[in-house]
Write a structure and sequence with these properties.
This protein has helices spanning 10-21, 24-31, 37-56, 68-95, 98-105, 108-120, 128-142, 155-178, 183-204, 210-213, 216-220, 222-249, 253-259, 262-274, 281-301, and strands spanning 5-6, 306-307. By secondary structure, it is mainly alpha-helical. The protein has one domain (5-305). It is globular, with a radius of gyration of 19 Å.
Amino acid sequence: MIAPREHRIGPWLVALGAGLWGTKSAWRIPLNDVFSVDVAVLWEHVILVICALPLVIPRLGELRRVHVRTIAWLLFSGVAGSAVGAVLFTRALKEGDATIANAVLNVQPVLSTAAACLIFGDRLAPTFYPWAMLAVVAGMVLVGFAPGAGVTIDAGAGYALLCALLWGLSTVAGRGVMVEMSLPLAAGLRMIIGLSTMVVIVAARGDLAAEALWPASAAAEPVRVVVWLVLLAMLSGGVPLLVYFKGLELTRASTAGYFEMVQTLVAVVIASVFFDAGLMWHQVAAAAALIGALVMVRRAQEHTALPYAAPGAMPVR
């Protein structure tokens, strides 16, 4: 369906966007003491949409030239990537073991790679497989999952697996969107779709009342809470989304999924620096192994991708 073109910088833009997403815990953890998780995500999307509207409205005419399947990709990306996936992962952490949940989430790139091969016809180099496997194992060790440790199959693991599936497919959907749609329009519409979904989720849980949207704990420190929300929405939400979508424009989904694992690396570092979680020697080694594996994944995939061609340019044969 879509030519497997890729630019050298694309995967690293995906990694940068995902890494900035990993900073969310620095703002989300203190906000969890103020709002419910769903309400915090709702406020994040409200701020994002306010900032995105000036970019989206002048570009709505582009939608007349976009295929229906691209709109479907965008809807799936907004609902699954911005809202439902986050809710599922939150429930995974709440109802299961956090280490198991984070370990299960590392299967996400495997799922996105499989979907990209089936849907977009991405080809994988023979040397891709060992480095991809190393990246997944390194990601599991990074979040504290020790080899040989017992695995608890509970509701939390199930929620994490569903989340990994949705986020993996969202990577593929995002790639499908960026083939036909401009970056500001795609990112802005995803934010709007995410906000609409979060309104439905929050309403279904009965949290649209004023006391839930702005509780006494927020009213006690309004300036600090607003600053946290703005940092969460912009530094860890809007800017990463723009960088990430630009990366998807320049990267095949089969490659991008592994570079998204940088989000986990950054989140572990944030927990260590800001919340005194500490880093074990094997986590440091796993971080180094992950970065090395990503470099080798990129090199392996260079041999199976067509050179990137900007929209409107003559295809490279």
